[in-house]
Amino acid sequence: MNKYKVAVVGATGVVGRTILKVLEEKNLPVSEYCLFASKNSAGNKLKFNNKEYIVQELTENSFDSGFDFAIFSAGGDIAKKFAPIAVERGCVVVDNSSAFRMDKDVPLVVPEVNKDELKNHKGIIANPNCSTIQAVLVLAPLNEAYKIKRIVYSTYQAVSGAGKKGILDLENGIKQYYSNTDGNNEYELQKFPYPIFNNCLPHIDVFLENGYTKEEEKMINETRKILGRSKLPITATAVRVPVFNCHGESINIEFNDIYEINDAIEVLKSAPGVVIKDDLENIEYPLPTEVSGQNDVYVGRIRRDFSLKSGLNLWVVGDNIRKGAATNAVQIVEELMKM
Amino acid sequence: MNKYKVAVVGATGVVGRTILKVLEEKNLPVSEYCLFASKNSAGNKLKFNNKEYIVQELTENSFDSGFDFAIFSAGGDIAKKFAPIAVERGCVVVDNSSAFRMDKDVPLVVPEVNKDELKNHKGIIANPNCSTIQAVLVLAPLNEAYKIKRIVYSTYQAVSGAGKKGILDLENGIKQYYSNTDGNNEYELQKFPYPIFNNCLPHIDVFLENGYTKEEEKMINETRKILGRSKLPITATAVRVPVFNCHGESINIEFNDIYEINDAIEVLKSAPGVVIKDDLENIEYPLPTEVSGQNDVYVGRIRRDFSLKSGLNLWVVGDNIRKGAATNAVQIVEELMKM
Question: Is B247 annotated as catalytic?
Answer without folding.
Answer: yes
